[in-house]
Design goal:
The chain is built from 8 helices and 4 strands. The protein is α+β, with helices and mostly antiparallel strands and about 160 residues long.
Length: about 160
Amino acid sequence: MESTPNIDKYLEQSTCRFIELDEINAIGQQAGNGWRKVFNVYAKFIYELSIHEAHPFKSWQQFRDKQLLQAGSSLCLWLSCSAEQLNSNLNKSNSIHIVMGKGYASKLSLAEQCFWLSEDFAINSKQHLIICPYFDYRQLTNEKITYLCQLLKQSFPDFYKALS
């Protein structure tokens, strides 16, 4: 995603790391409702993606609070990622990259490398890349979360099997 929480700790961070228990809540409290929405939509998406599997969590909220982006998770959230950083990781068979927002994808020169399935979704299977709406309730609605899950399952079945 293009932005970073306006908190010194994150503005200065240059490496990927797992977050601590309750850190998502702390970011939401310090950085505002927009960040709560990002984490909520991210949790809803991953929870729905794996809901048909044996899931240890009873709700997406519980998943958000106990697992999302924490140690043991195979997920990450790159903040203000540069085109160089992203390009160095594209094409790796063990990961899928989901870029939030058509505008950000354009800034990274990725939008023109993808096949646009609709106004909101694009894919580049060779680069293991999906472009979707920003993780916000109004942009990535529940219906669009379901579509994103289906797109990921159909386009990257090996990745999906490894996730479940």
